[in-house]
Design a protein that fits this description.
Blueprint: H1 7-56, H2 63-94, E1 99-103, E2 109-112, H3 117-120, H4 141-154, E3 158-163, E4 169-178, E5 184-193
Antiparallel strand pairs: 1-2, 1-5, 3-4, 4-5
Length: about 200
């Protein structure tokens, strides 16, 4: 039996108990606590995987996967329709009886149809930049260009009656268009002979 009357024995006993408690604390921190934390994380992981499985296998099928495939098919169908509409529009504009040309937001020519060449007296593919102004009488060009650029800047319709180099009276109608809600695309201008003037 231990004799508790000696202070040395009590000190050794308290030191031993402190060592045992320290060892148990060390084991708890290094081994038991991480295992408990891992088990909690594993439960969370297992629950997450089960939720994902429910999403993927609703009603016996893989609904999320099917939805993605259906969305891709829809996007492809819309893209094909958009290309068809663009091709039809380009063909209608190109072969239109009206002389048409398109400018960027600075007023430079970027496209014209076949009937435009009868006004500029050149192949439309050779006409670039501000060359479209050459069809207008020289003394009216500056005023027309200033008004045209003002309409572009203010995003409003352009209407102007003027004369060509051949003394033919024409009416020019220009309409701004937008690519997106925030971005202007350019100006589409039609040239109409004006026999009434």
């Amino acid at each position: 039996m231990i004799d508790f009357s000696h202070p040395e024995i009590i000190a050794v006993l308290i030191g031993s108990i402190g060592s045992v408690i320290g060892f148990i604390t060390y084991i708890w921190k290094k081994a038991v606590k991480p295992i408990v934390k891992l088990c909690k994380n594993q439960d969370f992981f297992v629950e997450s995987v089960q939720e994902i499985r429910k999403e993927l296998h609703t009603n016996g099928g893989s609904s999320l996967k099917d939805a993605i495939i259906n969305m891709k098919d829809t996007v492809n169908r819309i893209d094909r329709r958009q290309k068809i509409i663009e091709q039809r529009t380009k063909a209608a504009l190109h072969y239109s009886e009206a002389a048409l040309f398109e400018t960027d937001m600075a007023g430079r020519l970027i496209w014209s149809n076949a009937n435009f060449c009868k006004y500029v007296r050149d192949n439309p593919s050779n006409v670039t930049g501000f060359d479209w102004l050459t069809m207008i009488k020289e003394d009216e060009r500056d005023e027309l260009l200033n008004e045209f650029l003002s309409c572009i800047k203010m995003n409003r319709k352009f209407t102007k009656e003027t004369e060509t180099q051949d003394n033919k009276h024409i009416r020019m109608l220009g309409y701004p268009y937008r690519i997106t809600d925030s971005e202007h695309g350019g100006f589409l201008v039609s040239i109409i002979p004006n026999e009434e003037v």
